[in-house]
C-alpha cells in the first residue's frame, strides 16, 4: 500500500515533483528521506494521530519544490513511514531504545503461571548478558509482554534480541505442556502446508517501536507500568509483581534485573 501511494503520487504530479522518479520512492527509507520526515521527531501526545497528521501535513506542504499542497496519498505515505511509531519491521539504529511488545499465541494467558514468568525473567537476564543490551522497564501481563531495551553496541539486530528472549521460554513451556498438559497441544499446533509447528508465542515477532526522545521514553515507561491498573488487576502499578514499577518507585525489588536509565534520557 505504501509503495503504491508513492508511485501513484509521483506519477500523478510530474509538475510538483519534477526531479523524482517513481522508482526512487519505492523503498520506505527513501520515501521518508524524500519527504523530510527525519528533520525532527513528530509529537507524541494523547491525541497523537491528529497531531501527527497536522504536523506531517505542515511539513509536507512546506517542502521547497512543491508547487501545490500535497495530496492525501502523500500525507498517508508520510504517516505510514514515519519513525517513533509501532511497526513490524525492525530499524536497528545506534543510540535508539526499543519498546518491544509480544503476545502469547492466540492471546492465551500462559503468563498467568508463575513458573513461566520466572522462565521469562531468567531468559531476559541471560539475553542481556549475551546480547549486550540494557533493560529499562518491563511488565508481564497474562497474555503479553512489554519491554523497553537499549542496545549497548552500535551494531545490533533487535530481532536477534527478541529471539534470544522468547525462544528458551517457548521451548520450555511446550515441553512442559507435552508432559503435564497434553490437552493444550492441539490448541497450539498449526499446520502450514506439509509443516506442522507448535507455537507458544504469536508468530510475526510482535511490535517494535524505536524511541529517540526522553519525553517519549517517559510516556512509554508510564504506559507499560499502568497496564495492570487499566486491566483492574491492581490499584497501583507497584503492586504488580512482574513489573519494574516497584523498582522505579523504590518501594520494592524487581524479579528481573534492571539497568538505570542514563541521566541524558530521563528525569533522573
From TrEMBL:
Residues 93-227 form the Transposase IS200-like domain. GO terms for molecular function: sequence-specific DNA binding; transposase activity. GO terms for biological process: DNA transposition. This is REP element-mobilizing transposase RayT.
